[in-house]
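Much of the work behind modern protein science is quiet bookkeeping, done one molecule at a time. The fold becomes a row of whole numbers, each drawn from a learned catalogue of backbone shapes. The protein below has been through that process, and both of its lines are reproduced in full.
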Amino acid sequence: MKHILLTIVLAFAAIVARADNFYYGYAPFNADDNSLALTGTNSNNFMSVAIGLTPEHDPVWRALAGSKVIGVRVYLRNDYKQRKKEWSCVNIYQGSLSAEPQTKYADFLAGWNEVMFDTPVIIGNEPIYVGAEVFETLGTPMPFLAVSKAATNYGFYTRSSYGEWQDYSTRGAVLMQAIVEPQNPVVLERAAYVSFANVPLTVAPDQLFNCSVYVHNQTSEPLKTFSFETTDGIISHSYDFNFEDSPIEPFGGRVIDTRIYGPSTVGTAVSLTARPTLFNGKDAAEAMPFIGELYVMKDAFVRIPLVEEFTSQNCVNCPFMAYFLDEAMENHNGPLLYVTHHAGFANDRFTKKVDEALLYLFKNDNGTFNPAVMYDRRVNKGEVSPIHTAQVAETQPYDDALNAAASFPAMAQVYVDTEFNADGKMVVTVHGAINRSYYEEDIPVYLSCYLCESGIPVSAAFPQMGLDDEGAPADLAEKFHHNGIKRIIFNKELLGDRLEIIPTLDDTYEFSVTYDPVEIDSKWNMDNSDVIAFCHLVDKDDMNYNYVLNAGSMRTNAYLANPNGISMPRTDIHSNTCRGTFDLFGRRIGNTSLAPGAYIMDGKIILKK
């Protein structure tokens, strides 16, 4: 799909340069596959999408008064040759989406389509909505595409089977534009739209957080430099971008992974407004502001996912799982930490007592087995254990699991510091902060800390079964190494030592633990080793209360201090909908009849047993 889109982009750029008509909307012309979201019902049903163009909210659209909307440009994932049945068409609505539309039936081909109305509609003081409709079939489901990181406040609506229109604006910008014939003279100068999306579930007040910023050029002039500001009505921040080497094309858009400041006040739905300020070095024209609502917590932290794999040197299937899990971890756009537990199938020379002690997490009646993996020891909805057994021979399921793990709110911040004393022994200190709810509700929090070595090659001394089995990837034996091997367990108790959480004068809740000095074996490769620490709960009777609040290592210390360039994975809900009660997966739930588990309510962690 990416190659098709890029080919169309190049052809379209030439059309814009020649034509008097232009395309108006909020979607970019080119979009990376990773930022595209499918839109549809995935069933045999009518599916409609529309974009809203409202002079009340959009000053640039207001400036086009007297110009004409003459057609619609829309991207379809498949062919929909349904014109004769009057199942595929474009529509234009004046005033509201409940108005009777002007309809033009057409056959759609996969890719971009342009369909002209019989009668142009003059842009005036009323909102105008342009849209497209097809009959979605099971053979070709999810007909429309949207750029998930290009959020709008008023620009994306869907409807299935002639039901009620649903506002999908916070889910991105659908690949659709109005074709406009301008009234002379109409000159759109220095006009741009900016929004932010892909934000964490919770952010800290007046602190930088990772997100995606979408910049949309609303003029026929290439956009080379751009500035915008955000404000919560109390504090404003300015941000500058330079596109000199690769300008944003006329009427095009671009998604940029960056960081912006959160609002300065705490609350469950705090508004943050983004507006353009400079366009190619000159004052930007008045444009539609983007208003996002963020869940702001004073002790919001950056999530560092902890991946723990149960494996064995004697397990023939374990390298197969590790192959695809390793690929996913290499692809992951952000920090993560990895530990192996050599227990569950057969013990080997890497097995530690803590590995056997953790087998209670399998929670099944059929014994334990390998390979298996868990992400932050979190139990998925409908499951009874945090353990995930081997999946299909594909990287994608592990990619999805890692992205989901990174999107969960972090309830602790974990820093690791190491030094060597005069005797040459390693001294490890783990310190950080905990969400206040754990202190206020006296919830026991435990700290585990390991020295782990990776990159240990397979050899006679360190063998591994299953590397040359039938059906194994051709390069499995070449790529496989023993990774995440625990060399030292710092915590005194196998399942972690209970933390002492100390409230401070600035209303934070901190901890600090310094472990006894330890000897480092000269055979260990310390260049491939990490001290990994994590705060977590422990409950052998209820699997919901073993999850990891957050993890840290020496490597992630630097990331937490300066995470520029790392984008946060997309969460299941957008910041504009962060009201009410959520589970720790970021899913909205009702306040009544809560099942046992952990929940976020008004910035506090609530544990219901």
Notes: The helical segments are 2-18, 59-62, 318-331, 353-357, 396-407, 436-440, 476-479, 554-561. Residues 2-18 form the longest helix (17 residues).
